Structures are given as C-alpha cells and as structure tokens.
C-alpha cells in the first residue's frame, strides 16, 4: 500500500478515522503514524489501515499553465502528424492514427511530469 502524508485512513480495529503523519520504524517492522481527531497519535500496522480518502492539493497557476501548454503542443503534434501522413499519401485511417500518435507522445510526457512532480508516496 502506498500512502502520502495527509491521506485520511481508518483503523480497522475500532474504525477510528485519522490522517497519516508519517511512517515509523519499530524494530524490523514499519508502523503508520496516524493523527486522530482531538490531537491523539496512534501507530498502526499497515495491514490494519484502510484508505478512506487521498490527499489532493488544489491546482496551482503554474500547473494550469503547464496543462494548457501540453494540450496545445499535443494538438499541434496531432495536426503535424496527420498532415505528414497525408503528404506522403497515407489513407485517412492511417493519417488519424499518426495524429493520435503525435498527441499521445506529448500527453504521456505530461503525465510522467505530473507523476514525478506530484506528492511523494511511500510504501508500507
């Protein structure tokens, strides 16, 4: 299971809700540190934790700009791929696939950037 600080989890033993604050090494085992409502702290084995909600940060202005830029570049790559395929005499189906390939090449790079620059998840 992969968690990030701020995820809302439930303790399976008594159904208590809390937010993940980190991971603690306890000998050879790892325990999930959970902050409970009212300021309490609890350390739970990873098997005893159920994820209720993931932490989601609001989209910043910089990320919005990058998303719009990726969309525009992806559409341009789709158009140029389609046009290049049509110029060499490809049929409509092959031209559409060439355009889709150009768009996908850009969007995959954007998705990798989101994954690398997103919140770090740790495995417990």
Helix and strand layout, with pairings?
Layout: E1 2-3, E2 8-11, E3 17-26, E4 29-35, E5 41-44, E6 49-53, H1 61-87, H2 92-117, E7 122-123
Antiparallel strand pairs: 1-7, 2-3, 2-6, 3-4, 4-5
**N- to C-terminal distance:** 6 Å
How are helices and strands ordered from N to C?
Answer: EEEEEEHHE
Provide the low-confidence segments as ranges.
none
Structural class: alpha+beta
- Alpha carbon gyration radius: 23 Å
* Structural domain count: 2
Which percent range describes the beta-strand content? 25-35%
Helix content: 40-55%
Average pLDDT for all residues: 90
Q: State the shape.
A: elongated
> How many H/I helices?
2
Widest beta sheet: strand line-up? 5-4-3-2-6
Total strand segments: 7
The major sheet is characterized as:
5 strands, antiparallel
Structure notes:
It is built from two helices and seven strands, in the order ββββββααβ. With 124 residues, it is of the alpha+beta class. Helix 1 runs antiparallel to helix 2. Strand 4 (29-35) and strand 5 form a beta hairpin. The protein has two domains: 2-53, SH3 type barrels; 61-117.
Characteristic terms for this protein:
7 strands, alpha+beta, SH3 type barrels, five-stranded antiparallel beta sheet, two-stranded antiparallel sheet, elongated, 2 domains, 124 residues
What would you say about this model in short?
The chain is of the alpha+beta class. The chain has helices at 61-87, 92-117, and strands spanning 2-3, 8-11, 17-26, 29-35, 41-44, 49-53, 122-123. It contains two helices and seven strands, in the order E-E-E-E-E-E-H-H-E.
